[in-house]
Amino acid sequence: MKALRPPMGWNSWDSYMTTIAEEDVLANARFMSDNLKQFGWDTIVVDASWFDPQAKSEAYNDAAQGATFCLDKYGRLLPDPVRFPSAADGSGFTHIAEKVHELGLKFGFHVMRGIPRQAVRENCPVEGTQWTARDVADMDLEHACHWNNDNYGLNQAHPGAQAWYNAQLDLYASWGIDFLKVDDMQAPFYPAEIEAYSQAIRIAERKYHREISLSLSPGTQVATTNIDFLRRNAQMWRISDDLWDRWRDVYNQFSRMARWAPLQTPGHWADADMLPLGHLTVNDKQGGHMSNLMPAEQRTLLTLWAMSHSPLMMGGDLPTSPAETIDLLKNPWLLEVEANSMHNREVLREIYDQENKFNKWDGASVPEGEFIVWAADATGAAPSSCSCEKGEKCSCGSGEACSCGENSALTTERGSYYAACFWTGPTQCQQRVDIAAIVGLEDYQLGFDLTKWKVTDLWSGTSGEAKLDGRLLSVTMPAHGCVWLRFDPID
Description:
By secondary structure, the protein is an alpha/beta fold. Helices cover about 25% and strands about 20% of the residues. The chain has 14 helices and 21 strands. An eight-stranded parallel β-sheet has the order 10-9-8-7-3-2-1-13. Strand 2, helix 3 (about 95-100) and strand 3 form a beta-alpha-beta unit. It is elongated.
């Protein structure tokens, strides 16, 4: 099953934007293999404009104004052979994928929805059909991407549109990819395009006998009512616009992930976007910068992403990021919570202000911040053996059509829990919370002695302090910080 747990990897956008080169990809892959693979990090993704010979870090080149890209005779994008020398023989990303696989990692890259405008200008044939790019393109600019002019859309009413995607995926699957990030799919939401891409991936998977995970972007105003459709067609989908190293961007994900966390299931993950940590924008005129997020904010970001089962895709350049950043990524609890927790949920959110000593918010004063508590159950059993798609015969051997399609049958060993207490205000804050909010009333009423818990600080005391006194958990959190804990009952 694809994406059994939320993917953990590296994406080149935050560090290299449009100027990523082969040597950069392999340097990050080697670093990940040597330092992070054992902690669950296993995917390398090349983001936008890998096909553009004139790529510049600060902006996209405009295909509507005549910018030309590297295409094959069928109008399919090829890597720029100057930045990616191993592609000069026409084999695309084959050699890079092989090297990444040799390191025990997965490889993927970014594409835009639709068909290149250049392919339409040159009227390239659609491989294996009697049609051309002009036949299948949707040249209505209302249906084109509004922030990137690389492509036109595809006329999904034309049979050649699916043939175009099939041919594109056939080429990319032949290179040995494991992951495809497809952009301009959700803002606005293009269900026909998403289904067409999903179908093309399934065809390529059967031919090349390898799995390809589909990630959809961006995520502006993606509604939870789309959940069933998204689960049928993708492994990851963004739930926000681009996230950068600004506290307001991190803060805005709290409410989004509170909506999406109850809907997370193995194989299908709402994505809070890349982690803007470490060395960012390395190819800008200033040589890049280190993340503007403070240490407490970085831990808050990672904790929220893990507790909400968001994929973790590192954005900063791994080899040149500070040791402190890499140490955060090495926290083994990130993988443990991503892979072995369930019922992840926000359980409490209250507004407080400093004037009233964080006891309440009276509605008149300016609120200082929010005290937010998340909880999750620690799981003990492996995921269900079900690996089928909804409607297919279930792999359990019953011979009946699968009714779940989510492969989400996890069980829990009663008694162990995760908790994350967040404070969004700009000054240190102390709060108390009834532990029943974390362990649930059922365990409380069944006679658990709430004073007998082993409490493990998952950030090793670097993010704040916690003390359990009877049924009350007292926490001290730094500005924009958190306390991340595991509770295990003591016999």
